[in-house]
Amino acid sequence: MLSDIDISRAATLQPIQAIADKAGIPADAVEPYGRFKAKLTREHLPVPRDLGKLILVTAISPTPAGEGKSTTSVGLADALNRIGKKTMIALREPSLGPCFGTKGGATGGGYAQVVPMEDINLHFTGDFHAITSAHNLLAAMIDNHVHWGNALDIDVRRVVWRRVLDMNDRALRDIAQSLGGPANGFPRESGFDITVASEVMAILCLADDLEDLEARLGRIVVAYSRDRKPITAKALKADGAMAVLLAEAIKPNLVQTLEGNPALVHGGPFANIAHGCNSVIATRTALGLADYVVTEAGFGADLGAEKFFDIKCRQADLKPSAAVIVATVRALKMNGGVAKADLSTEDVEAVKRGGVNLARHIENVRQFGLPAVVAINRFPTDTGAELTEVIAIAKAHGCDAIVCTHHADGGKGAEGLAKVVVELAEAPSQFAPLYDDDIPLFDKINTVATRIYRAEHATAEPSVLAQLKRWEDAGYGHLPVCMAKTQYSFSTDPAALGAPTGHSVPVREVRLAAGAGFVVAICGEIMTMPGLPRVPAAEGIRIGASGEIEGLF
Amino acid sequence: MLSDIDISRAATLQPIQAIADKAGIPADAVEPYGRFKAKLTREHLPVPRDLGKLILVTAISPTPAGEGKSTTSVGLADALNRIGKKTMIALREPSLGPCFGTKGGATGGGYAQVVPMEDINLHFTGDFHAITSAHNLLAAMIDNHVHWGNALDIDVRRVVWRRVLDMNDRALRDIAQSLGGPANGFPRESGFDITVASEVMAILCLADDLEDLEARLGRIVVAYSRDRKPITAKALKADGAMAVLLAEAIKPNLVQTLEGNPALVHGGPFANIAHGCNSVIATRTALGLADYVVTEAGFGADLGAEKFFDIKCRQADLKPSAAVIVATVRALKMNGGVAKADLSTEDVEAVKRGGVNLARHIENVRQFGLPAVVAINRFPTDTGAELTEVIAIAKAHGCDAIVCTHHADGGKGAEGLAKVVVELAEAPSQFAPLYDDDIPLFDKINTVATRIYRAEHATAEPSVLAQLKRWEDAGYGHLPVCMAKTQYSFSTDPAALGAPTGHSVPVREVRLAAGAGFVVAICGEIMTMPGLPRVPAAEGIRIGASGEIEGLF
Description:
homodimer, Formate--tetrahydrofolate ligase (chains A, B), Formyltetrahydrofolate synthetase, domain 3, 35% helix, one-carbon metabolism (chains A, B), alpha/beta, formate-tetrahydrofolate ligase activity (chains A, B), Formate_THF_ligase (chains A, B), 553 residues, Rossmann fold, Domain 2, N(10)-formyltetrahydrofolate synthetase
């Protein structure tokens, strides 16, 4: 079998203007970045009359066995195009930093990829670099304000805005800054997160347009004053310059699938401390151009789909029509207690045991009023009996499960899935978010914990509850919550696979993302700056004799 | 008078492919970045037969009055095109960070600009972001190597590779990193420089091609072992991944002048701790396409031109044909002791007093075997008597001085200058660097100090001399030196204007840039991470109601 990068390279890409033509995008709206990438200027796009149907691809709880959510998204979009539905896909941009650690790209796999994969996985059109610049400009302006007299009375002990780099660099997690004497400012503790964890990233992905972007940037709370009042980016007069730095980044990026279908790849917020899906602007642009839009949320449905529904769809007033839950036999077996080394051995009982995970995700998606279908991303080692068992589990929960082979066969391998998706999506959407805006913040956390994670309850120290209360008093009580917990379990214990019950969800810390428009509830240890492994992938990455990149994936 | 940005916006830009056509660049070699920018792939360019003539634009010692070196470079290139010489200009890319501090753009001014100026001054084609990523990947790999066992026995007290950001941020000049416990590595002191100060920037600008780039990256010395052996980027296996990150950045960027002439804007190393001129690749590409190539060096001729000759031309085997020394009446008056507030009052005696600065720069340029002409960048307040005095000073030193009005009149205002440049350049080049490769490092420093700065001698503590000796023993003795001193004076005292004599040049510190291929001699305080001023320009930068950027310049 060819590697993903070999398949990607063997493909003959179409000029990006041809892809734009196919999508009905006028030449005026296309700003080329090289031959196979472009940014779209929305003011030049046709005003949409009927909006396309929005299909969310989500998954069971992730395991090291891999599920293939991006791959399935691409395969499904190609399949929908094959069966005559004009379809675009909207995906997240991959983060540069982890490419040099252990993680491969995030552009699908096999014959279900978006291309050019090297470009997309590296600098792409510079969006993440622009976010890094905007984020760090604000950071510099905070310390600069304090240095020159601190007219806003910023409490330097309560600066909550860190810096970011798109790099895996554990050495920057915790630093002491402004050392070296008075010319360098007032020493304080600080640190760096990876760029995808920046609130600026979340803002870019939730903004309606450039105007809304600037307004959201202005609302970012960067610090508190000595009398505990929130200090915003607008008070520092940083919002305008940040918006200028992001003026190109906010335009969605057009690329193509291996089958030559249009794909928008735009924005990539973390799926733990942020909402984990591509930009609202890309999704809306696609909905204005296509009959069907396939999009993807991060991690499993407990995290990614819940945030897609409760944060993105709520804020952007999007009405998804159906959900696809990606599962693999291998991942269900891991959820059923099989070790990674033993996954190639048939074990129907393990599939059955692990099936409780799939069942719960199906039930959860239904709570949002959405019809669902299970996509079984087939691996060569899957047996007929195992596949039959997955189909039975889904059926028992009122849901079709379709065996898909898009990794090996491209869109053709997902046509069965596409047909079911169309059936489901033809019915009017009954979508609604899980909770109302006007219940207290902690009740929102508790609603997700009990209804999605199936915990007994959420818990929090009095100091956390007091913080939530202060934010409610300051006018942030209407915001949705963004849960940051392990992606490996419904609980906060990454080892509790399957469908745990009887647990509680302890909220360790809460953070306000006033610009993005949510309150982050941190449950357990969440890493916002990854490190490199003992042997980083970077050591094997180089430009080969043929001029092609080696070792990237 | 219209502002630079108003003039820039009022211009009708030609599509970048039209500019490429004019320059004789085939469509295959053009990778568009939007409509008015492109990267050039050199393998698709025609193989040059005769190389064009290379014209260096340099200047007298800079003052707050401004000289207009970039403006004169653009005006001269437009003028050469007007008088029938096929001419390209090769300039540095501006740094993003300082745009938000006090500095305006670096794309010329008035009717002598390269455009689109907002793009060029902001993210442009992402080159500086790529350099930031490559630099910081190496930094992360150093700490990661130590964290996972330190097989190379890196002495963490002797890590000389800092991190970079393209931002003015004094808080990052000196930091303590890797705090927070064992998972974050071994705490040590460190800090950030601005991206233009990165050795990766200097390397990108001196590399012949991608292969040479990777080899140079591999030679970077990042630290010393406990037994004082240099540890290189190659030993850390970082060179390949860094080259991959820079594979797009190394391609020169094509833009246009306001008069529609082709301009390559590529690379922008600091002119103090680095050599301060655009990439060798851009200069060579232009020389292969045009009859004349106008390029520019940083600061005054004592720093910028000397490094252009002794570092860039030496390494790349370039033979410049003539030098243009930009002077203004105002700057000469400041060199003659007039305060900035009084510069609009006629003062011929002050011009005469300050003229010693111009005279010495003329003499210095001649030491490299190059014919020179003085370009007087005319300001509205200059009087006839003052201009006559400048012409007389130049004449007394065997050099024409031409009054230029390209700021107000575009290329037409520099036609007189262009004609003299052609006359000078028609003679065969007698160019030679100032010193030979094989003299000791300190003798090289002393040669520049005595022959260019006209000091009595250079001095250094025994520890500095011992360090130079160790590098000579380690095989770095053949490298040229890169002098880092104040740009405001021939001496190391920024207040000593004019043409000081009798001074000495104390070398405070030396740094090895083994990848770039020079040894930096730091004389006096050199700031490698600027700060923001009390009221940063960022506060006034925003996207206006018309959708155009306000406050950037």
